[in-house]
């Protein structure tokens, strides 16, 4: 994946409440379907996007591996990324570890010393890990050694409202985004003295933060739009042209004030080979949309299975394969209710897209 990397959503103060908060965010925002009297009217631009997606068709993904037990039992897997050598790393909020996986997707190393690790990009061929507990970013070198990169990150609003904090690191740039419900909302460079206010409602800015080189891409998780900040300071907004979701009507209704809960449409994004990949949340489906740098839909990658209805995808990573095609690694979770208990289970799905399969634009 090189230096084109991703950022992660920060949750709350302990492993149980962090996952509980994320579950509440996903379910209450409309990711759990089956509501009555759902809105149906779309913005005209959403109708055009839906028509484009329908015309383009779907590229079916093939399953390479699935981890839904074994070494992952009892863990809260939350972020994934590949290092410069193609090794997959997965973070766990329960024990505060970062696991390094082999080609069979079994742990070969476990890095400790973190409280709540979130993979946040790459610098100097080392993966960056953001830990909101101590406001640091550290680098993982050679899948074993850890060294500090940044300390005392700006966190904006005080208290436990950290769901709106996002960090992204590349070789040439490092940024943090604050989009909490209270307090100041801003984008701030960690390498330079640059701080950009983000006026307007929380939902407009809360979402993944991506860097392509030193260009900043700031997503809204609730609308298919991306704010882009270029190195020279030029700012514009990209529409994800071709983004389609069953929740677009509810998203419009929320913006207009007709419903109280904003639907979460996008939970993660990633860059590979100059293309933008977006995790499009749908019940029972792993769907990743592929866009060019201008936000034009190129291809839809999808895999559906009945068991997926119980799981919510929260993060993914993509890498080009040496023989062509793409590999996607996706982490998801589900809630398991007992008579007097509630626990969470994680899973890791690894899937591939053939360079020849499905329609392409």
**What proportion of the residues is helical, as a percent range?**
10-25%
Low-confidence stretches: 1-5, 10-16, 22-35, 157-161, 357-361
Number of helical segments with 4 or more residues: 3
Strand order of the largest sheet: 1-22-21-20-19
Topology pattern, helix = H, strand = E: HHEEEEEEEEEEEEEEEEEEHEEEEEEE
- Structural class determined from secondary elements: mainly beta
Query: Span from first to last CA?
Result: 22 Å
Number of strands: 25
Quaternary structure annotation: single chain
Shape: globular
Q: Give the mean pLDDT.
A: 86
Strand count, sense and barrel status of the largest sheet are:
5 strands, mixed
The amount of beta strand, in percent, is 35-45%
Describe this entry's structure for a reader.
11% of the residues lie in helices and 42% in strands. The protein has helices at residues 15-31, 44-56, 248-255; strands at residues 59-60, 62-67, 77-82, 88-92, 97-101, 107-111, 118-123, 126-131, 136-141, 145-150, 165-169, 174-178, 186-189, 195-197, 209-212, 215-219, 225-229, 235-239, 266-272, 275-280, 285-291, 297-304, 312-320, 326-337, 342-353. The strands form 6 sheets. Strands 1-22-21-20-19 form a 5-stranded mixed β-sheet, with helices on one face. Strands 2-25-24-23 form a 4-stranded antiparallel β-sheet. A hairpin with a 2-residue loop joins strand 7 and strand 8 (126-131). It is globular. The model is unreliable at 1-5, 10-16, 22-35, 157-161 and 357-361 (pLDDT under 50).
């Amino acid at each position: 994946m090189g230096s084109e990397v991703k950022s992660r959503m920060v949750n709350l103060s302990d492993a149980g409440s962090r996952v509980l908060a994320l579950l509440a965010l996903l379910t209450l925002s409309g990711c759990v379907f089956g509501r009555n009297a759902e809105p149906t009217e779309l913005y005209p631009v959403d109708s055009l996007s839906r028509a484009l997606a329908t015309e383009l068709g779907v590229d079916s993904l093939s399953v390479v591996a699935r981890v839904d037990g074994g070494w992952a039992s009892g863990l809260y897997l939350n972020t994934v990324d590949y290092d410069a050598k193609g090794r997959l790393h997965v973070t766990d909020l329960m024990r505060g570890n970062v696991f390094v996986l082999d080609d069979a997707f079994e742990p070969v190393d476990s890095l400790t010393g973190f409280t709540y690790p979130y993979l946040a990009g790459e610098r100097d061929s080392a993966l960056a890990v953001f830990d909101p507990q101590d406001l640091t970013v550290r680098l993982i070198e050679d899948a074993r050694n850890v060294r500090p990169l940044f300390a005392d990150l700006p966190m904006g609003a005080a208290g436990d409202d950290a769901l709106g904090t996002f960090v992204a690191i590349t070789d040439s740039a490092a940024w943090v985004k604050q989009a909490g419900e209270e307090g100041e909302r801003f984008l701030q460079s960690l390498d330079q003295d640059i701080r950009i206010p983000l006026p307007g409602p929380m939902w407009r800015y809360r979402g993944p933060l991506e860097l392509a080189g030193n260009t900043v891409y700031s997503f809204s998780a609730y609308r298919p739009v991306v704010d882009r900040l270029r190195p020279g300071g030029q700012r514009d907004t990209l529409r994800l042209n071709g983004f389609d979701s069953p929740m677009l009507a509810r998203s419009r209704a929320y913006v207009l004030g007709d419903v109280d809960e904003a639907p979460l449409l996008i939970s993660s994004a990633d860059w590979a080979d100059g293309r933008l990949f977006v995790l499009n949340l749908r019940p029972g489906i792993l769907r990743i949309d592929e866009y060019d740098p201008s936000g034009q839909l190129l291809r839809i990658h999808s895999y559906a299975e009945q068991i997926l209805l119980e799981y919510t995808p929260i993060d993914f990573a993509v890498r080009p394969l040496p023989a062509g095609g793409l590999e996607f690694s996706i982490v998801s979770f589900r809630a398991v209710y007992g008579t007097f208990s509630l626990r969470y289970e994680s899973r890791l799905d690894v899937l591939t897209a053939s360079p020849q399969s499905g329609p392409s634009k």
